[in-house]
């Protein structure tokens, strides 16, 4: 018996050692995390209900934890069941509720005509990013991230991120709508195609990627035009094009038979593509056999000499200047 107890104790210590090795103990908890929690709580962005319960502060292991965790069993005022209970801090929970209200539910009604009634998502977990030992701590370790894996609609249809990202047209449109909607609210959004670790879920968090918290990461880059807010209903499948009708019969086009230059009419037997003859060129002008007669220069009248004006040595010339007077400016 004591041998069995010793074996269990050894396994427990070994597991604790593995957990400790997977956490980066050299990492420190940034001050902005507690500040963000305090602001969220002061603004009462999260109100306790029978589905959202505040629990005791979580401190550790290492820098993991949060000042005021909330244990959540339902979202949307109780209308959406969580397949697994979530533990989140105030900022992430407030944004998750807003994401559900302004993007997820409207997208479900747009593409499927029914709301979401159940969500399968992950939350708090004190571990390194992408579960890599020694890596920088994940935002999950601070209750600041959510991993959305699937949703269930009111008609029983389940949409998984893994299968729906390249699933039917409606599933693809729905998941891309909520992906782009998340990019408007969270600072980090990673979906299938961003890296090998996010092939089956959409990861969202509120990490700060720069001192002011303005930089955002939204991957992968997709070519998609969101339909939410467009004001028009989007068809769930491509409409079948109408059958092509034969063109209506048209009257034969009469080919012009008159010479456009008005010189000589074309023969009816001539080819329609025959080009009309150009008009004959008029005879060239006769060249002069001798130089043309020189016309006499016009007579220029000159004014009578005027009296000398003060400041001039000689009277002003009112006629044409003589050839030797130089250029005129």
Verbal overview:
- This protein is an alpha+beta fold.
- It has a domain of 167 residues: Muramoyl-pentapeptide Carboxypeptidase, domain 2 (2-Layer Sandwich), CATH 3.30.1380.
- It is 23% helix and 16% strand.
- It contains five helices and eleven strands.
- The strands form two sheets. Strands 1, 4, 5, 6, 7, 8, 9, 10 and 11 form a nine-stranded mixed beta sheet that branches.
- Strand 7 and strand 8 form a beta hairpin.
- Helix 3 packs antiparallel against helix 5.
- It is globular, with a radius of gyration of 45 Å.
- The N terminus and C terminus are likely disordered.
Brief digest:
The protein has a domain at 53-219: Muramoyl-pentapeptide Carboxypeptidase, domain 2 (2-Layer Sandwich). Helix content is 23%, strand content 16%.
Structural class: alpha+beta
What fold name stands as the CATH topology of one domain? Muramoyl-pentapeptide Carboxypeptidase, domain 2
Q: What order do the helices and strands follow?
A: HHEEEEEHEEEHHEEE
Give the CA-CA distance, first to last residue.
127 Å
What general outline do the C-alpha atoms trace?
globular
Instruction: Give the name of the CATH architecture of one domain.
Output: 2-Layer Sandwich
**Biggest pleated sheet:** 9 strands, mixed
Fraction in beta strands: 15-25%
Poorly predicted segments: 1-21, 232-280, 285-290, 300-329
Any idea of the CATH class of one domain? Answer: Alpha Beta
- Rg over CA atoms, rounded to whole Å, is 45 Å
Note the total helix count. Answer: 5
Helix content: 10-25%
Mean pLDDT: 75
Instruction: Please report the total strand number as a whole number.
Output: 11
């Amino acid at each position: 018996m004591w041998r069995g107890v010793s074996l269990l104790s050894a396994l427990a210590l070994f597991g604790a050692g593995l957990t400790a090795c997977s956490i980066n103990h050299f990492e420190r908890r940034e001050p902005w995390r507690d500040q963000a929690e305090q602001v969220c709580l002061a603004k009462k962005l999260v109100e306790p209900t029978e589905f959202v319960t505040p629990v005791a502060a979580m401190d550790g292991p290492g820098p993991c934890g949060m000042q005021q965790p909330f244990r959540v069993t339902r979202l949307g005022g109780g209308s959406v069941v969580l397949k697994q209970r979530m533990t989140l801090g105030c900022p992430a929970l407030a944004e998750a509720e807003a994401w559900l209200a302004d993007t997820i539910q409207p997208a479900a009604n747009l593409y499927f005509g029914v709301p979401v009634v159940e969500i399968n998502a992950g939350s708090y977990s004190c571990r390194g990013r992408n579960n890599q030992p020694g890596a920088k701590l994940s935002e999950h370790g601070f209750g600041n991230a959510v991993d959305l894996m699937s949703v269930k609609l009111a008609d029983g249809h389940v949409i998984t991120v893994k299968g729906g990202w390249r699933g039917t047209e409606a599933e693809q449109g729905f998941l891309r709508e909520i992906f782009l909607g998340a990019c408007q609210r969270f600072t980090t959004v990673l979906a299938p195609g961003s890296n090998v670790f996010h092939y089956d879920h959409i990861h969202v968090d509120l990490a700060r990627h720069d001192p002011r918290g303005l930089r955002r990461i939204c991957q992968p880059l997709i070519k998609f035009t969101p339909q939410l807010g467009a004001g028009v209903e989007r068809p769930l499948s491509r409409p079948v094009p109408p059958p092509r009708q034969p063109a209506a019969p048209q009257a034969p086009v009469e080919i012009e038979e008159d010479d456009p230059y008005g010189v000589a009419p074309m023969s009816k037997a001539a080819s329609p593509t025959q080009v009309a003859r150009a008009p004959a060129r008029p005879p060239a002008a006769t060249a002069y056999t001798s130089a043309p007669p020189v016309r006499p220069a016009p007579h220029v009248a000159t004014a009578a000499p005027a009296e000398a004006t003060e400041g001039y040595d000689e009277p002003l010339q009112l006629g044409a200047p003589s050839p030797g007077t130089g250029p005129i400016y």
